[in-house]
Amino acid sequence: MTAIFAKRAYLESEWHEQVRIQIEDGKISSWDDATTSLPEDELVDVLIPGVPNAHSHVFQRALTGHCERKSPSDKDDFWSWRENMYRLAEKLNPTALKPIARQAYAEMLAAGYTSVAEFHYIHHSGSGKRHENNMFDALSEAAHDVGIRLTYLPILYERSGFGESQLNTTQQLFALKLDDFVDHYRYANDSSHPGMSVGLGLHSLRAVSESSLEHVANLAKNEECPIHIHIAEQTAEVDECIATHGAKPLRWLLDNIEIDDNWCLIHATHTDEKELASLANTSAVICLCPTTEANLGDGIFPLTVWKALNGVIAVGSDSQISIDPFEELRWLEYGQRLVLRSRNIYATNPTTCTGETLFQDAVAGGNRACGHWRKPLAPGSHADLITLNDDNPLIAGHSSESILDALAFCGIQSAIDQVMVSGTWVVKEGRHVAQSKFERDYAECVHRLWN
Questions:
Q1: Fewer CB within 10 A of the end CB, N or C, for the chain?
Q2: Catalytic pick from 318, 324, 405, 417?
Q3: Which one from 57, 184, 228, 267 is the annotated catalytic residue?
Q4: Does pTM surpass 0.90?
Q5: 267 among known catalytic residues
Q6: Is the pLDDT of residue 414 over 90?
Q7: What is the percentage of the chain residues whose pLDDT exceeds 70?
Q8: Annotation says 318 is catalytic
């Protein structure tokens, strides 16, 4: 039994003062507010829930900063970036993936992400060797070593575009036949360690056949597990879907597949109000990754429309160009401010604050997307939490009402002191407890990859 006494704590989406939280077997067993500490308690100033990272391609941590040179064609966009990503993917194997994943997962924890949905589609190596289970093993071991809660999402990737087009050479790294994909999902489920769960994923409508899409959707429904898919990320994808199916991607998906609250749709950038209204009725989550979407030049999601529909959101680090949930929240709001030339867009209720509203919604939606359905830091939920120090300049002088606004909008330095996952402290004084080793291993790995 562990007990933490916090001067202030954000529990079950509300602020409480003088809170004593009891933790047993990695879960919150109870909490009481307006109380006093006991001699055995661990004392903290401010305590908030950890943030779920609902969309990660962890291998792309090794790509950051390598795609910012102007191309000779002068046509830099998602598709030119993808060629650079493919060149990295061709170099990867389980031995290289593990230190990359450990470094990125440690950075996630230090930034306040306590769980991650890993959208994984590299199943083979450039040499043609089948690695689907070994690549999963590398990710599973990395998450276990680092102490982050992992939702593993094996991804089905069958074709390069609408119309049953053939995979190119690099895309063969991602390919699994449907039966092999299901077998891999079963292997991951059987091999998962405590603190880990397994869902299902489809790369995109353009990358899977209609029959496979239906099969995986039915499997997810029967397994009652999360199911994720990229949707309407690029205008070229939207145009090709219209040419093939006579409908935009989200509209076609809603008309042909039964979507429920286990679904998480990634990006949904190029969607309209009618599509979003239909999607909101399903209670599915939309995961937004604004730093990646900005880095790739994807576009800006119509967040105000989705918010007005009471749509559910989550955030993700995606390409790892930024690993900071509070920066994702900041740019969700800033994108809307730039488009609308107004302020405090997301806080539709005058009595609420923008940062707190974004944080509350992203934590709740991210937990759903990762398959964690309990309220964060409620009795019975995982003891996944962040602590802050009152003396940190970022939050010094802030009342409870404005702390989450400071975290979201004061992008000066991190205010995170400690991070706990399943009752174990994995971050102390703002750094992962084993960060130095992970950094050395990562540096050796990427030197080999790029040199």
A1: C
A2: 318
A3: 267
A4: yes
A5: yes
A6: no
A7: 99
A8: yes
